[in-house]
Amino acid sequence: MILILNIANKRNQAEAIRQSLEFFGYDLVLKNIHRPKELIDTLSTWKMRSIVEYIIICGDGLKDAFIMPDLVDSVYEDGEPQSRLEAKTIKKLAKLSGQTVISTACNTFCNKLSKSFISAGAKNYIGPKDIINSNAALYFVQTFFYEITQHGVSVKTAYKIAKLADEETNKFKLRK
């Protein structure tokens, strides 16, 4: 099963990924994330952890952080991060159990962020090391899962194939 986390509806990318992966035959859940607490709660307490193999995070990124939607100050709970969800918060609060995490958000393969997911229990973390074209990110994810579905290849092999398309897809990096 695949869990897609859609932070602030990034140009319908999550929906395009959802439709592609359902067409490939995957079972999945698409969860829209509107505030930092929702992302933290999903990564730390979600009930389907044991059956989810892949987590895809769609949204915007900024070196070592996911950019969160801006909310009115009175809406935030005490201690809830505002505007950015940083690597240190993910490392501290996320509880994963061997999933492969794929981020399509720009600049989310920086050392701190990628290592925070591995420290939290992810088996692999894949994300772009720079600003990436949204179409290239969509293509990368589709190719990655096509290779796994159609050719039964490993995560590492699917990653290597998916990144070969052009300079944009080559921005994706893998951490184990």
Overview of this structure, please?
The protein is α/β, with parallel strands linked by helices. The chain has one domain: Rossmann fold. The protein is built from 6 helices and 9 strands, in the order βαβαββββαβαβααβ. The chain has a 6-stranded mixed sheet with strand order 2-1-3-7-8-9, with helices on both faces. It has a 3-stranded antiparallel sheet with strand order 4-5-6. A hairpin with a 2-residue loop joins strand 4 and strand 5. The chain is globular. The two termini are 20 Å apart. The mean pLDDT is 92.
Mean pLDDT reading: 92
The CATH architecture assignment turns out to be 3-Layer(aba) Sandwich
Q: What structural class results from the helix and strand content?
A: alpha/beta
| Sheet with the most strands: spatial strand order | 2-1-3-7-8-9
The number of helical segments is 6
Keywords:
alpha/beta, 22% strand, 176 residues, 3-stranded antiparallel β-sheet, 6-stranded mixed β-sheet, 9 strands, Rossmann fold, 6 helices, globular, single chain
Topology:
Elements: E1 2-7, H1 13-23, E2 28-33, H2 36-45, E3 54-58, E4 60-62, E5 65-67, E6 84-86, H3 87-93, E7 100-103, H4 111-119, E8 124-128, H5 134-151, H6 155-162, E9 172-175
Parallel strand pairs: 1-2, 1-3, 3-7, 7-8
Antiparallel strand pairs: 4-5, 5-6, 8-9
Helix pairs in contact: 1-5, 3-4, 5-6
